[in-house]
Amino acid sequence: MSEPSQLASTLQVSDVEVAGDAFEHLQGVFGARARVVRMRLGDEQIELTEYLAPRGRPIPVDSRSQDRWFQHVAIVVSDIDKAYAVLRAHKVQHASTGPQRLPDWNPSAGGIEAFYFKDPDGHTLEILEFPKEKGLAKWHRPSDRLFLGIDHTAIVSGSTDASLAFYRDVLGMTIAGTSENYGMEQEHLNNVFGARLRITALRAAAGPGVELLEYLAPTDGRPYPADERANDLVHWQTIVGTADAVGAERALRHARARFVSPGVVALGDTAKSAVVRDPDGHAVLVHGRLN
What we know:
The protein has helices at residues 21-27, 80-89, 160-167, 184-190, 245-254, and strands at residues 10-19, 33-41, 44-53, 71-77, 93-94, 100-101, 113-118, 124-129, 147-156, 174-182, 196-203, 209-217, 237-242, 258-259, 265-267, 271-277, 283-289. The chain is mostly beta strands.
């Protein structure tokens, strides 16, 4: 979604087709065959999964930012005005009314500029530019690139405390920052009238963070679809690495996490993965070595 010179650091890492018993059990979809393309932007990677069989359902056309199935990835840019112009040139669908600069009265978020838009399947993406005193140090290194990397994935949480019990207490992430965001700019960013959010940023030792978005208002967000499956386009998976997949499974079972896979599934001779749901239904793929 950019000009070639600006995509010079966006690389296709791999493009494979996956099928078979292990993949079916991992994702909970019988007869699954999928094309998985891994892309890298800067230091971060994202996997795009196209289910060749069985095909899933489209994203609900009436999806809103406060619905529990909402999730996005936040792409850091060096100049949001130029990035927005590139997106406009490629005729992306707006999710925000336009780029927003969060107000200075908010000590945690003031000066951050952000914009939500849609990809061709209707997934929400965000571009954001950090002021010099905010964000990771690497986002402020001199660069001639416009699109720098992925800072975090954001998910709607019905209860921050319940989400922390999962992401912090079980998966071991740490709180990197908190804020309460509201006002005209936040309303136009999320395209939600009267939006007031409790935001909690979580990080692991490496990789993009997870941002919890709890809507204090409005409180009419709909729950995650109970019948959602991995081949539905509304489905996202946050991949969490672990040194011990079997130990992670024990911790998740002790915490009574809801498993999509029957447990850890062997993927080759050296790795195992499991897919579980967080308290709101968001899928998390825990991937680690076979110990």
